[in-house]
Write a structure and sequence with these properties.
The complex is a heterodimer of chains A (111) and B (316). Chain A has five helices and three strands. Chain A has 111 residues and is α+β, with helices and mostly antiparallel strands. Chain A has one domain: Arc Repressor Mutant, subunit A, CATH 1.10.10. A three-stranded antiparallel sheet of chain A has the order 1-3-2. Chain B is mainly α and 316 residues long. Chain B folds into three domains: 63 residues, no CATH class; 80 residues, no CATH class; 122 residues, no CATH class. Chain B is 77% helix and 1% strand. In chain B, helix 5 runs antiparallel to helix 6. Classes of the chains: A alpha+beta (111), B mainly alpha (316). Chain B: Keywords: Membrane, Transmembrane, Transmembrane helix. Chain A: This is PadR family transcriptional regulator.
């Protein structure tokens, strides 16, 4: 494995946990699955549909998201939005995130 | 509607809990349609195929929706599963087999029947132990909540100690001594007690009496040598190069003639064999196979002893 490949695979590990945080951050405005995937993609958060769609349902089951079917348009779509509990979790995770960044900064400066 | 998308959706949702099937199905159809629309390709069939390919194996996707591990026994409980199964097969199985053989022997006073009952219980009890513990761990791995799983299977260094202790204990050598003593005892007993009763009322030994003019003696002496070495290993704690040579000699004395008479098909008393088998004779390949297994076990035993004496040497 050359360095480029090694970075790519380690970076994937690093990003894995951030998808949840990104979803919670974006779903202040209701979105349906594919549109959210596009938004994430445009923002540079690489995630596959077959990971994202089950993830949204899981977050809903955990009470962090709520969902609603919108049947106004020709194609009915399920819109997800963050719940009150989800907002609290998101704020906690953002705090965690900043702590992590600070810690890594400190460690890499010392090194 | 039998489109490719519909078939894919059906493949996914029939693998997830019934309560969420309809909802997941609707959502998947809408999402696939959205993705297709966004691509805006003239070749619709080709685009549909590409989108579904990107969604991936429906079994995997269903597993993600159902939030369950793909393997029968999930990775969290797998180590515990292997440990419990090994423990059961190493302790419960031999006990049950010995008990069933003794019970059969008391009832029928017939070694052939007792051996049959022993083999039968190895197979049935072994399969039962395997099947039930697999089922138990399968259910555990499916229905236990994630955080509980982490708690019950969290590895602690304590787990290491019991393995080390078992390695140093006397249980292994004593079990090995007992096994070789039982084999030696059976060898002599079947000749003296002529336990098998033939249809015409004659009592027959199981093994060919002709063996006693040759191969039976090194086999018996080898077994007794192994018993002595095992007891020495258990209580004297000497695991040096000399004891390895002893094992090599004893194992060779026991294994080589045994493998030879098995391969040569001269192990059983022909009258006993005719009674048990009727006119059916086992293919020669069975005997050769059994001889190879006997040799392999002998070699493995010696390799184990060599390794043990090396470790003991390093510890000193």
């Amino acid at each position: 494995m050359d360095t480029g490949e090694a970075i790519a695979s380690q970076a994937q590990e690093l990003r894995r946990g951030t998808v949840v945080l990104a979803c919670l951050a974006l779903l202040t405005t209701p979105q349906y699955g594919y549109a959210l995937l596009e938004t994430l993609d445009a923002a540079g958060v690489a995630v596959d549909g077959n990971t994202l769609y089950p993830l949204l349902r899981r977050l809903e089951k955990q009470g962090l998201l709520t969902s609603e079917w919108n049947t106004d348009e020709s194609r009915p779509r399920k819109f997800y939005r963050i719940s009150a509990q989800g907002a609290a979790v998101r704020d906690g995770l953002i705090g965690e995130w900043h702590d992590l960044v600070d810690t890594i900064d400190r460690l890499t400066k010392e090194a | 509607m039998d489109t490719l998308t519909e078939r894919y959706v059906q493949e996914v949702i029939r693998r997830i809990p019934a309560a969420s099937r309809e909802d997941v199905g609707r959502e998947l159809r809408a999402t696939i349609a959205d993705t297709l629309e966004a691509r805006d390709e003239p070749d619709r069939a080709g685009a549909e195929r590409a989108v579904l390919t990107e969604m991936g194996d429906p079994i995997r996707l269903a597993a993600r929706y159902a939030d369950r591990p793909l393997a029968l026994i999930g990775p969290d409980v797998y180590p515990m599963y292997v440990r419990v199964l090994t423990m059961l097969l190493a302790t419960v199985l031999p006990v049950v087999v010995v008990v069933s053989m003794v019970a059969d022997l008391v009832e029928h006073n017939d070694l052939g029947s007792a051996i049959g009952s022993g083999i039968g219980s190895v197979i049935t009890v072994g399969a039962q132990l395997f099947a039930w513990s697999t089922l138990a761990f399968f259910l555990l791995s499916r229905y236990q909540r994630r955080d509980e799983r982490a708690r019950t299977t969290a590895w602690t260094p304590d787990a290491l100690r019991s393995v080390r202790r078992a390695d140093r204990s006397t249980a292994g050598p004593i079990a090995s001594a007992a096994w070789h003593a039982v084999l030696a005892g059976l060898l002599v007993w079947q000749q003296l007690a002529v336990p098998y009763r033939a249809a015409n009322g004659d009592r027959l030994p199981v093994l060919d009496p002709a063996l006693w003019s040759g191969p039976a003696w090194p086999i018996l002496l080898g077994l007794l040598g192994l018993v002595a070495l095992d007891l020495h290993r258990a209580f004297g704690r000497v695991r040096d190069a000399r004891s390895v040579v002893g094992y090599l000699v004893a194992e060779a004395a026991f294994t080589l003639p045994l493998a030879w008479v098995v391969r040569d098909r001269s192990i059983f008393d022909p009258r006993f064999l005719a009674e048990v088998n009727g006119h059916w004779t086992a293919p020669a390949a069975w005997y050769s196979g059994a001889a190879v297994i006997i040799l392999a076990i002998g070699v493995l035993e010696v390799v184990k002893r060599v390794r043990e004496s090396r470790q003991a040497g390093q510890d000193c």
